[in-house]
Amino acid sequence: MSTGIGNLVLGDSTTSSQQSFTVIKKLGYGSFSSVFLCDWHGDLSPEVLPGLTSHIRGGADQPGVRLVAVKTLRRKWEQSLHECEDLKELKALRAITPHPCVVHFYDVFLASEMSELSFVFEAMEGNLIHFMKSRKRRPLATGLVAHMFQQMASGLHHIHSSGYFHRDMKPENILITTTGIFNYRSLFSQSQPDAVEQKDVSVICKIADFDLAREISSTPPYTEYVSARWYRAPEVLLLSRDYSMPVDLWALGTIIAELVNLRPIFPGSGQIDQINRIVNVLGDPADHGVDEHGRPRGGGPWPRGLEQARRVAFIFPEAEPRNLYAMFDNQTPRRLVECISDLLKYDPVLRITSQQCLVHNYLRECLPENLPCMLPEPELHAQQSSIPQDSHAVSESPN
């Protein structure tokens, strides 16, 4: 399909009032929008990352093609773009400044002949679901997992620092582009310089899809039906309508666990089954003592959660937590399992923050050549100086 669309009313006055693009193929669709891969013919903002589109399939063999992803909403807008100004997704996209780990937002326009609002983003190769399926059960190099985790945590930290929380973190919303082959070091200890190298792909990760994003300063109640069920935090599963950034961190923990095992950690078939699957792994929300490394076992106590459960007539079954280390391959670094455990806490107050993820002992132990820095140096140094060395220690609520 090849269709040029003009007569567009732009949303930010940074580009020409006449834009056109050629649709190459449909990338995906949902209940409220469709996404197309397009060749963009108009101006793009100066923040376009040079050379990225050369890594997108279908772009390298088309000289001069500038690939973008155009997301078109199904809702019809009867008047002008001014009518769309209060759209929460548009507000979030404008408020969150460009960052290497967040998909770049180029433009917004209203096609006057169809009254359809569209957003223009940088094009990526696929999403994390596509990537994991392409592995065909072949585990990722340990250094690659670390690099991808750092990028997701960096993107989340930028979103949170911009005053928003995502609310829909899931593999489909982590866009990826592979950029070549890299020799990763398989061991996570600087005391072993002769570590075996693992050859694997190099991956760029970016967080996308902000239609459910909300301002951290906004006032609840929020809807309890956010994010895909497998990545939904316990407080949301118990129909809380007062939640914040920690729901993103719970989701990050489930995503990283899935990336390591290449299968979901909590694949519930319904709301109650989802909670029960969490309990089967983390135990009930109580104090279950410490493991052989002196760390708290399971998901930890959660008095407020027990009260929430009573309000919706749910009783947590009594259950001991599983050995989380045994749920992963014996080549999985212990610190990575501990990081996942730090994210999968019942009580939102006890979950580590996106900022603490970036200085977690897991990343501190990675060999530097496995972990290209994705943050500007001053920002990274500021984070390292502001977080306690014991990265479990949460001095205040992330809410």
Automatic annotation (TrEMBL):
Keywords: ATP-binding, Kinase, Nucleotide-binding, Serine/threonine-protein kinase, Transferase. SMART domains: S_TKc. It holds the Pfam family Pkinase. It comes from the Eukaryota. GO terms for molecular function: ATP binding; protein serine/threonine kinase activity. PANTHER family: MITOGEN-ACTIVATED PROTEIN KINASE. This is Protein kinase domain-containing protein. It comes from Rhizopogon vesiculosus. The lineage of its organism: Eukaryota, Fungi, Dikarya, Basidiomycota, Agaricomycotina.
